[in-house]
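Action item from last week, closing it out:
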Amino acid sequence: MAALIVTGVLAAVSALMAALGKQQISKATPPKPEQTMDSVKTDVAEIKEKTQR
């Protein structure tokens, strides 16, 4: 009987932790590749500059 109670408590704690983790993941923003974005902007500016000459 004690094993069933312990299993039930552990299952409830696991479900709570999973729900909280899912909530945190959904709030997180996707990471932006900042260095790549800056590099692409620099490349585009340089290409525009060279084509205007």
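Closing note: The CA atoms of residues 5 and 11 lie 10 Å apart.
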